[in-house]
Each structure stands twice: as structure tokens, then as C-alpha cells.
Amino acid sequence: MAQVTLSEIRKSYGSVNVIHGVDLQINDGEFVVLVGPSGCGKSTLLRMIAGLETITGGTLDIGGRIVNDLDPKDRDIAMVFQSYALYPHMTAATNMGFSLEHRGGSKAEIEERVNWAAGILGLEALLDRYPRQLSGGQRQRVAMGRAIVRNPQVFLFDEPLSNLDAKLRVVMRGEIKSLHQKLKTTTVYVTHDQVEAMTMADRIVVLNRGRVEQIGAPLDLYDRPANRFVAGFIGSPSMNFIEGTITAEGFATAGLTVPLPIKAQSHVGGPAILGIRPEHLRLDPAGIRAEVLLVEPMGAETQVTMLLGNTQVIGVFRERVDLSPDTVINVMPDVAAIHLFDTDGGQRLD
Ligand SMILES: Nc1ncnc2c1ncn2[C@@H]1O[C@H](COP(=O)(O)OP(=O)(O)OP(=O)(O)O)[C@@H](O)[C@H]1O
Ligand SMILES: [Mg+2]
User: Fold this and answer.
1) Do residues 135 and 72 touch, judged by C-beta distance below 8 A?
2) Do residues 224 and 279 both lie within one domain?
3) Is residue 349 included in any domain, yes or no?
4) Whose CA is nearest to atom 26 of ligand 1?
């Protein structure tokens, strides 16, 4: 196991800069998830850690060694890809043992390691099968088996579950998490599924256009996003944003003033954006007038899309609301759960 430290890491392809100086310290045994929109540089960053991509600037330290110029095979890391990348003509066991064989392990040693990994991953009965004889989830497990047999210092995962159906994704998510609890290997995991990020991570790194927006524990990011980008990216459905003005009485918007929980005195008179999560809106006759656009009952809760002034917002209500499109309701933000952002850079205001 090892600590991984990225200092001022940069990447450019020709004249195009895609990673603009990333600083990140991943502790020994930690499970860190990189999230961000498509094209923000998640895979590039992971591939630089793996050694599959050259590093344009900065230093990468794995386990106390600067590894910028080290070959992937000398970095003592194992990577699991979205596509599994199994050899089709080899059985599960051979796929899993291949890298050990490559390093000159003895037959007995390899067999022991493969059996150990198969035991952890529940693959004992499938070792003689070829990839085409395995389901997607089983193939993904073989790909993980291939990573763990080597007992590397660091695991890297690039969207390993995105080819699986929704149900299997949930199962495998739990398996990867419990694998980490057993092995405690330092892990960097890339996904753009923010539920995966929330449930698996010790810490989440939110990336945007090649820069770190925020690093923190999942619930810290959820409860105190540093800026509007993180606020909108973490959480599903996304946080609602309402434009208005901060006055001495509170936040004024769409003909109503919402009291503010925080001292926003220094911003009085200025424009601001109020952020409120869908679950923090409640039906209240004294609330803001909203026109219902869409009602989606989901069993445990009902999701209501509505127009508030000319801003579209979503409310999630635990009670069984009986609403239809075109009706008018009144909603009130839970004052304690309000976030405020400035209108320019979108920075958090408290
Ligand atoms: N070989 C390359 N040459 C030029 N540009 C590249 C190359 N590889 C990646 N890029 C660019 O670098 C940026 C980051 O790409 P990257 O694959 O890291 O994104 P990502 O966050 O993994 O996205 P996704 O969620 O879609 O997988 C993108 O704008 C991409 O177009
Ligand atoms: Mg990617």
C-alpha cells in the first residue's frame, strides 16, 4: 500500500492544455473518487498515475518515489478498465494469473494467488471458463481478480461499472467497496456517476475542465459545496438555483422574501443565487408561487418539476402529493438548508 501525491500535475496534447496543475494527496489505504463532466480530464489524470500517459509538468509520487519517468510495470499499480480488457482466448484463471506468469512466478505460486483472488471474488466455480462464457458482471470480477492477484500498492479504476446494467452496477459497487474494506489498498476510482462517488468514496475530487473544484468527504461536498459548480454536480436531482437579491430582510425573489439563516450583511443590496436541493423544498401556502409542469410519482417520493417565476425547479416530496400539470402550488425552501452563491464566479457566500 502507498500514499500517492500529485503536485502541480499538468498535461497538454500539443498546444492544448487539458490538466492545469492538479494538487492531490491520496492517503495510504484511502478510496478516492474522481468525478466530473465528460472531457474534464478524469481518465487523463488516472492514466498519468498509471504511466500510460506522459506527464507534461509537476511531480507524481507513489509510495515515496517520484515515478514520473517510470514504466507502468515498475509502478506497482493495477488498473481496471471499463472494457475489462480480458484476453478472449484465455480462461478466467489464465487471465488472472497472466501478469504473475509474465513476472516469472512459479506455477504453484500463481495457482495459489489465483485461487486466493477467486475466493475473495466468488469466482471459484468459473475459473475454467472463457470470457465469452461469462456474464458482464463475472467478466468485471475476473478483471478485478487480475488486478488483485498482484497485490499492487495502488488500484486504479476507470469507470469499471459503466457497461453493466443498473442492477448489476449496484451489486458490483458494493463488491468493490467490500473488496477495499478487506484489502485496504489505496484506490483511485473514476466515475461520472455521482451516486457511485457518494457511496464509495472516502473523499471525492470534483474536476472541471482540468482543474480541481473541490476535494472532500462525500457529505461535506453535499452539505457545503464550495461553489455553484460542485453544488450542481453533486446530488441527484441537481440542486435548484434561483436568482435574486440579498436584502436586509433576506433573499428577495419572484415577489417573495425568503429569510436567510446566515449573516449575509456584507452582501446586502447585491445580486446572488440561492441554491436549494429538491428535498429541501416543502409545500407551504406562505411560500413562493410555482406552476406545476410535470409530476413523477416514484413510490417512495414524488418528483415535481415546476416553474418559479421563469426558473424551472424540481421538488422531491416524501408525501403522496396529488398534483397535476398547470396547477399552482406554493413552495418554501427549508431555511436551514439554503446555500448562497455569488453571481460572478459562483463562489459560496458564507
Ligand atoms: N490523445 C489525445 N489527444 C488530444 N486530446 C486528448 C487526447 N486524449 C484526451 N484528450 C482531451 O483531453 C480532455 C480530457 O479527456 P479525458 O479522456 O481525460 O476526459 P474524461 O474526464 O475521462 O471524460 P469521460 O467522462 O468522457 O471519459 C478532453 O478534452 C479530450 O478531448
Ligand atoms: Mg474517461
Assistant:
1) no
2) no
3) no
4) 38
